[in-house]
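Sample log: ABC transporter ATP-binding protein.
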Amino acid sequence: MAYIEVIDTYKRYKIGENIVVANNGINFSIEKGEFVVILGPSGAGKSTVLNILGGMDSCDEGKIIIDKTDISRFSNKQLTKYRRHDVGFVFQFYNLVQNLTAKENVELATQISKNSLDVDETLELVGLSNRKDNFPSQLSGGEQQRVSIARAIAKNPKLLLCDEPTGALDYKTGKQVLKTLQDTCRNTGTTVILITHNSAIAPMADRIIKINDAKVRSIEVNKNPLPIEEIEW
Ligand SMILES: Nc1ncnc2c1ncn2[C@@H]1O[C@H](COP(=O)(O)OP(=O)(O)OP(=O)(O)O)[C@@H](O)[C@H]1O
């Protein structure tokens, strides 16, 4: 069995009289330590998949096996524990606490988690050792995103989930953030799943899952992922 198995999951949202089928029988598997890109246009159902994997939403049918445990059967209490200890999230907007320094923002996450990493070491991993006493407003967008990555990985999560993490950044800064995520995956062995609509970055991934119109359209295993520095778009 793979580290992560998504087995025939469905998610439907009711909006007034209408039902939107956001995930229509999704199947894929992911091995431990992989860097995975989920690719697809707006509205394809990518965030729905990620939110279900992260325990923020639940599927109507199907199974989500994470490290041999089916989280689709979890109670709210079990989901809270799962989100707290096992999942790191990075969003398009960094969601940092503005009146806490970079270091304090990361500490906040380690306080609610049990296997957390050393905060200073984590800030060093993302290249922010010299900025840890700065407040978010004193940091660039890319630096703020790297604080949010540090916050996510300081929990030492089983899964690092990233929803369009470079969506608000320019080309060069976005590339630095992708490098931080790729390095994190390689250096810490964390399984990273990244959502994007930018197909150009797919060659950096070990596995590329294409989703369109609520279904998985293709899965490609890439034996020779490229360092992000070698990818131009
Ligand atoms: N909480 C919700 N309530 C109602 N409909 C929803 C909800 N979440 C998602 N949807 C709908 O489900 C479909 C898939 O949305 P989803 O956000 O998963 O797509 P996406 O591929 O992540 O798109 P984007 O790249 O624009 O974020 C869309 O039609 C969306 O409007």
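Observation: The domain at 4-230 is CATH 3.40.50.300 (Rossmann fold).
Observation: The pocket of adenosine-5'-triphosphate is lined by residues 13, 15, 20, 22, 40, 42-48, 197 (CB under 6 Å).
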